[in-house]
Amino acid sequence: MDDSRHIVASSRGGPSNPMRVGFGGALAAVCEAVRGATATAKVSNNDVVSLCAGLAGTAYPESGRKMRLLLEEEFPGKLVRVCTDMDLTLEAIGDGAAIVLIAGTGSAAIGRDARGNTARVGGHGYLLDDEGSAYHVGQRAVVESLRHFERTGTDTATGKKILSEIGAATWADLQSRVYAAPDEVFPRLYPTLLHASEEGDASARSLLENCAAALAELVGDLAERLQLQSQQFLLAKTGGMLCRSAWFDERLDRYLRKAAPHAQFSDLRFSPAEAAAHLALRLLPPA
What we know:
This protein is of the alpha/beta class. The chain has helices at 18-41, 61-74, 85-93, 134-152, 157-166, 171-180, 190-198, 202-225, 246-259, 272-282; strands spanning 50-54, 79-83, 98-103, 107-112, 118-122, 233-238, 263-265.
């Protein structure tokens, strides 16, 4: 983005959560995206003045500080800001009182009251919460299916779909894969559960119903914290769990209307990546 807020190029990088891929991996992913964008725009790093990286896993002060230092070393002389991916979504919804629900591999909600005070709930990672996330619902599906197998010696329809999706011959095989790389197992099952629910699988529907309720609870808790329960505010949703099943989207919206009856549903005004560019421009001194 140039200083007139015109997007001149875009690019993509790999996973960049330093808590999941390490700080070296996160740095490499950001640098990959920068190289792609500058090459497309036909500019050099010397032409870059400021940089904003919105990365999951940087909400903790030490993580954010370390990531910023790494980027400052990689891009010497540049103005650098590191924030969370959630901060980008809040920037992308525009001004005023608003809440953004993030529903993906993890889950969280971030919001702002009319005075500009911000707060968030969730987003602490799968070891602490992430209820309603793709990771969490996949994990619950495995637990329930495994318990049914251990109790009866037979697999539920959902259990069979889980084993087939992961390519595991037995539950022992799946267990080995879970302990080796849980991020590659649990979130991957979310589309499988959506498909099963659309076929009328009662177990899958129950899991996804609970998932929708948990996501809406994040919004309700945050609205209460920001004292927005009786006020109108914008409510946006973003993340890979959305727009994949009309049934699930309808259930989630129903729970959200109960949790935040005064919310006005809204789309993000622009992408989180564009929001990062806007925040980078704010680092520049006034003209």
